[in-house]
Amino acid sequence: MTVGDIEYLPYKGESQIQELMSLIERELPEPYSIFTYRFFLNQWPELCFLAYCKGVLVGVIISKKQPHKLLQRGYIGMIVVDKEYRRKKIGSTLVKITIEKMIEMNCDEVVLETIITNIQAISLYENLGFIRLKRLFRYYTMGADAIRLFLPLNDNFIPQYYN
Ligand SMILES: CC(C)(COP(=O)(O)OP(=O)(O)OC[C@H]1O[C@@H](n2cnc3c(N)ncnc32)[C@H](O)[C@@H]1OP(=O)(O)O)[C@@H](O)C(=O)NCCC(=O)NCCS
Q: Which residues form the N-acetyltransferase domain (predicted)?
């Protein structure tokens, strides 16, 4: 899919790992090992999308799908947009493409965590209909709290699971 000069493409394979790792490491404070990337990308390659501008990688989203209680949960693990390309809806488009894929894969819900101070990410997700589920104290290795965000994808949502 192409929007303006940004092309959105599905992940093709191992040859793209270094490129996406270097973009993510530049922009995210929490370090991930190659094993974390492979855990996501080898099991759910269809849930990774890349955004390119004139052949240069400017955005990436990496997710997984797993059973959670009685439901199938889509989980967004990482999303990053290059600083120079922010505020152009690239992040929102990557999330929307991922949600469409998760619906196709029969996910019942989408969940993710982000640092409680990450206003950009929280607003992006809330604009797309996500709600705040809970605060996770000292969730990150550096001791910061996280917020868990949640989007139901169908009527299977059972509120008492989430109190
Ligand atoms: C979060 C991130 C992916 C957003 O990407 P993006 O392409 O800039 O996002 P979008 O252009 O789609 O923005 C969508 C909405 O998010 C909110 N938003 C994005 N950047 C914002 C900012 N700097 N300040 C306030 N709100 C912001 C706005 O509501 C925006 O809508 P608007 O532009 O119509 O007001 C990007 O800021 C990023 O890579 N941050 C570093 C990595 C990170 O924090 N990832 C999330 C961890 S879970």
A: 6-154
